[in-house]
Structures are given as C-alpha cells and as structure tokens.
Amino acid sequence: MAAAGAAKVTAAAAATAVFRSNQELTRLARSGQLAAARRLFDSMPRRNTVTYNAMLSALARNGRIDEARALFDGMPRRNAVSWNAMIAAFSDHGRVADARSLFDEMPNRDDFSWTLMVSCYARAGELEIARDVLDRMPGDKCAACYNAMISGYAKNGRFDDAVKLLKEMPTPDLVSWNSALAGLTQSGQMVRAGQFFDEMVEKDLVSWNLMLEGFVRAGDLDGASTFFARIESPNVVSWVTLLNGYCRAGKIDDARELFDKMPERNIVAWNVMLEGYVRLSRMEEACNLFEEMPDKNSISWTSIVSGLVRAGKLQEAKDLLDQMPFNCVAAKTALMHGYLQRKMVGEARQIFDGIEVRDTVCWNTMLSGYVQCGMLEEAMLLFQRMPNTDTVSWNTMIAGYAQGGQMRKAVGIFKKMNRRNTVSWNSVISGFVQNGLFVDALHHFMLMRRDTKRADWSTYASCLSACANLAALQVGRQFHSLLVRSGHINDSFAGNALISTYAKCGRILEAKQIFDEMIVKDIVSWNSLIDGYALNGHGTEAISVFLEMKANNIRPDEVTLVGILSACSRAGFIDEGLKYFNSMEKEYSLKPVAEHYACMADMLGRAGRLNEAFELVQGMQIQPNAGVWGALLGACRLHKNDELARLAAEKLFELEPRKTSNYVLLSNISAEAGKWDEAEKTRASIKEKGVHKPPGLAGSS
DNA sequence: TATGCGTAGT
C-alpha cells in the first residue's frame, strides 16, 4: 500500500517536472533560442506530446522545416496540435503542396486545420482555392476561418469581396472588421478607410492603430499626429507607429522627443529610433543609443553594423561584431558587403567562413563579391557549393560571365535556370550588347516576349543600344512604339536610349524631337543629344545645346566634355576645342581623362598638327590608353606620317596585343609610304605573336 | 504548457 502510494507521488512529481520543462521549452521556442530549446529537449528524461509539439514549433519558427518534419514523423503519439503545427510550418514557408497533402492525410481535422488551409492558399494568392476550402468546411464554421478568407481578399485588393463575406458570416468579431480595414489602410486608400472606420460596428485599439499606420504609410505625418491625439489610450504599437512615421520623414529630432516621452519602450521602439539615426548617417547618436539599449536582437545588430559599414567604419563594425553574444547572419553579411565593396575579398571570405549557419542572402553576397572583383572561378566554385540557390544567385552568375566577356557560359547558366525573371533576361540581353553581339541581343528579346516576361527600362535600353550599334533604324522605330505602348516612354532611361539610337542611325532631327518631348531631362539626356550632334558632324548645334544646358543650370560632367570635344574635332573647330579643353579644370572643375585626350589627339591630328598632338599625349598626367594612341595612329595614316605611326602602333601593340586591326593598319601605313619591307614585317608579326583573331566573344576559355 | 484570423521595427 505504502509502495503504491509512493509510486503515485513519484508519478505526480514526474508529471509536474514534464509540465515545468514544457513551459520552459515553450518560452525558449517563442524567444527564438533554438539551441537552448534543443538542449532542454534532449535532456528531458520524460516527454509527452506537448513536449514534442513545442519542439516542433521551435524548429518551424527557425525555418528548420525538414527537421520539423523528421521530428513529426518520429513522434510516439500525434494529436491534432501536432498535425496543425506541421501544416502551419509548411504554410509559413510557402510550401503549399506539402501543407495540402498533410491536411488531406490528417485523420481528425479541427477548426485550426481548416483555418490554416484557407490562410495558406490566401497567402499564396490562390483566392479561389482558399474560398473553395472555406465553403467545404463542414458544420458551423469558426470566425477565424472566415477571417482568414476576409484577410486574403483584403490583402489582394478585393475589398468588396472582403466586405461581402464579412456581412454574410453569422458572427463577425473584431478580427473580421480589422481584416477588412487593413485591406484599405495597407493599400493606401485612406479616404475609403476613413469612411469604413467611421462605419465600423466594432472597433478596438488595433483598428485605431491600423488607421494610424495608414496615415504614416501615405506619408501624411500631420494626419497621423492628429489621429494619434484622438486615440484614447495608445499602446506601444501606437507610439511606435507614429515614431516610425517621424523617422521615415527624416524628422529625427521630433522623433527623439516622442521617444523620450513614451511611457513604455520595448525593443521595437528602440530599434525604430536606432534605424532612424542610422538612415540619416547620424552614427554617433546611433552608437550612443545602441549602448543604452537594454535589449538587443538581430535587427538591432544588423542596423548598427550596416550603419557603420555605410559610414566606412569597417574596423569599428568588426570590433562590435566580435562582441555579439549570438550568431546574427544578417549583421555579418552587412560587414562582408562592406569589405566586398572595397574589394577586400580576403577579409570578406574570413567572415563568411566564420558563419556557421548561412542563409541564401549571405551566400549571394559572397558570390556577387567574387563576381564584382572579376574572380569568376571562385564564384563558380561557391555557386556549386550552395545548398540552396535562388533567382538572384543564378542572375549573379549570368551577369558575371557576361561582364567577363564569356557569353557562352552566361547563356549556359541561363538555359539551365528553372525560373527566369526579368533580371535574368536583362542580364543575357545586356551581356550580348556589351560584347558586341547585337543581333543575339535582339533575338533574345524576341524569346523573352515568348516567355511572357515583362520588359522593363533596362531591357529597352539594351535593345535600343543594339539597334543604335546596328544602325537598325526600322527596328529602333519598333522599339520606340513598344515604349509608347508599354508606358515606359516617360522614363528618362528610355528617352535617353532613344535619343542615342536615332542619332546613331543618322536621324538627328528625330533625336532632337525625343529630347524636346521628354518630361524629365537628366544630364544623360543632354549628353546624348550633344553626342548625337557630334556624331553627325553638327558642331555648331552641339555647342549651342551645350550653352543651353549651362543656361539651364545643368552642370556639365566628363561625358559632356567628351561630346563637346568630339563635336569640335569632327567639325574642325580647333580653336573652340582647345578653348574648352583648356578651361575644363578652371570652369567646370573636371580633370581631363583619357577620353578627353583621345578627342584632342584626334582633333589636332585630323588638322595635320601631328606634332602638337604628340606633345599633348606625351605631356599627359595619366597613362595614355589605347583610345589615345589609336586616335594618333588614325591621324598619322590620314597625313601619311609613318614614323610617328610606328611609335603610336608600338604602344598600341603593348596595350592590345591581340587586336589584329592595329597590325593591319600599321602595315597599310608602311605600304602606302612605299616601305614594303616594314609592311611585310608587321604582317608577319601577326602570326609570330600568335594573334589569330579578336578575343573570342563567346568566351570559349 | 503546444497549433489558426487583424496593428509597430530589417
């Protein structure tokens, strides 16, 4: 008897212990402490179904869906909560099909299960299927299930359907009304939202906060402040919403005043204030606030680190990261990004290697760092090692190979992609253009339309550039009308590309017309028109556009001066050209770069002032590039100066050893001067140096 | 003590 009594006591004590551990496990799960939750779970001598369910949701919350599934499959007993938690895990990560098959297998579905499925489809944008699930739900439908559907309609812009269902359902609750209201406030329809809010049968603080957030989102700070003042007893969410409004409007000092007035500050409030300072690069205040924060989570750390990185304080960011008490991938990725922008690949890689659990953003950052540094082999190795790739990863590789001149590899990656988006198409199309394969670019535009992917300004800019280079006026005109039809005609990008296209096709009047019709002209628009006149030999017009530009208070940049100098060069305006060139630094604070020298060499050379041109090149502060020597060589041919030609050509051979046309040009110059031996020698050196053809555009390396 | 629908911060 006594033994039985003792056993009963022991069993009760054990049950209490499990109960207590479960409470702790739940707490850990909710605060995102997965590692601690796992340790506790593993150390528990006895577990019940609640224990497993808590662990399951801890895994799901941290995105460990497949581990959660393994735990689910291995559970000794499963109840409805276990099934629902697993369905929710799939639903939260967009795995609609997995959620559905579990729902179909589930023995006894309850209200939670049906609500989860409605919500799952609604969030995936599958509103008709969601509605079908709701309609099939047997017996009395719970309010939550209706609410999931109302929310789905509202978030997808179907406000009328949301209200219709709200009126149809037997017992709408606060969430029903707020779900419908959220549809209006979150899509910026504040007038309708205000009417709906006034007519609401039931409302609570969430309703008021939804309205407040709507004003902030619409950028109506006065409306927000006035509305806030009407809230009877605002809670932390109300305060934070208004605080965020001030921060986003850049009124950081007003924000700080509000922050100091807050009756209660939680971690979200601190983070909003911190991000406000960081956004305005007020890093000293940001750092002070960060020090004062009673709690810091991964958002706080990411904010401060990316702020320091943006301010160029990489060492401070790194020192701070070394003190981070937990592993925050986003903060470390921000530092990696900073290193990579400065081409400090080794430092970035060190951080990367030190991260135990990386997300796809982290992998993509390292990947694009390698690409930007031209380290394509390392990029490919990393790409192949990635546990998960997304469209960004693939697009990064495509753009990398395209910029590296290896179009064959770029296209190879592109063809293997499962889901191509507009950026993927743009990367190959602009790659073809950059590598001079204009016909391929236009061909891929046709394929893109067949793939029903939307073209954007970048697509059109690349295609127009292809047309310009092919001088394909008719195709260019077709793109022009496509731009009008797709509504992109008012983008300054598109307009600028059109100006260049018409100008390069010799239709300078049409180029000017586009320019005149453009609503928003930027510096590129002016430069494109000046370039266009230059290209067509209209020196006077180019200069008059330049003067008009200055009269409009647009500051000329380096590109403008290239245009002006080449206009003077082609029109033979030597004195004008020299005047502009010599006044670059004084009048426009622009240091001449190689392109300017090339224009000058061309200008003086064409006019037969070869020695002056040569002296100018020799006196350059910077290293002359191939363009400069090329201009000189061209002028030498024009004026039959084979001695200077040889000198310029030798420099060109150093800079562009594989470019056959340089050798051919020099050989012709020698031949024209009657120096047949020299000509033959130059031709022979083509074979000698192993120069066969221009560098392979298709990148067969 | 574990699972669903509406509000704030990357």
TrEMBL record:
Annotated InterPro entries: E_motif, PPR_At4g14850-like_plant, PPR_rpt, TPR-like_helical_dom_sf
Keywords: Repeat, Transit peptide
Keyword Kinase in annotation: no
MF (Gene Ontology): RNA binding
Keyword Transit peptide among UniProt keywords: yes
PANTHER family per UniProt: PENTATRICOPEPTIDE REPEAT-CONTAINING PROTEIN
Protein name: Pentacotripeptide-repeat region of PRORP domain-containing protein
Natural source organism: Setaria viridis (Green bristlegrass)
Taxonomic classification: Eukaryota, Viridiplantae, Streptophyta, Embryophyta, Tracheophyta
